[in-house]
């Protein structure tokens, strides 16, 4: 967190919890003025995970 109140937050998908929904819900927190997605990575070839 910076002195002027900005912070970087890392959000990941979890079973039953889509990262996009989490990012969108951050704006519901009192004092949050803006949320920006600045990087997105998707890897469908992760070890131990299956892709449907």
What does this structure look like?
This protein is largely without helices or strands and 52 residues long. It has one domain. Helices cover 13% and strands 0% of the residues. It has one helix and no strands. The protein has one helix at 19-25. The longest helix has 7 residues, at 19-25. The radius of gyration is 14 Å and the shape is elongated.
The percentage of residues in β strands lies in under 5%
SS elements, strand count: 0
pLDDT averaged residue by residue: 84
- Cα-atom radius of gyration: 14 Å
Give the ordered list of helices and strands: H
Overall structural domain count: 1
Class of secondary structure makeup: little secondary structure
Q: Looking at the structure, what is the overall shape?
A: elongated
Helical segment tally? 1
Distance between the termini: 38 Å
Low-confidence stretches: none
Helix content: 10-25%
Oligomeric category = single chain
Largest sheet: none
């Amino acid at each position: 967190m910076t002195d002027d109140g900005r912070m970087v937050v890392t959000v990941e998908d979890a079973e039953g919890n889509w990262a996009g929904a989490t990012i969108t819900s951050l704006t519901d927190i009192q004092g949050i003025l803006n949320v920006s997605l600045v990087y997105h990575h998707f890897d469908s070839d992760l070890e131990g995970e299956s892709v449907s």
